[in-house]
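Quick one, T. Sequence first:
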Amino acid sequence: MNKKLFSLIELLAVIVVILILMTLAIPSLNKLKMKSRAVICASQLNQLGTLMANYSLDNDGYLPYTNNNEYYSKYSYSFKDQRSYGP
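Structure tokens:
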């Protein structure tokens, strides 16, 4: 009984074909990953907008306090329960 085995050249050819397929697949997978990150970001922004709207409804139209002034943010701190100036 004579078994026929794979030769070294055949194994190298299979490895080369697999590597070529991988090089073609990786860029499309990266694009898919970037699209999924964009969808996740958009979903989180939507949830943040809903959160802000619900906070405003629960607190007489006030939004959470923010201190966007760069000068004051270096030398002061804000309280989480402090509200911004309302209408």
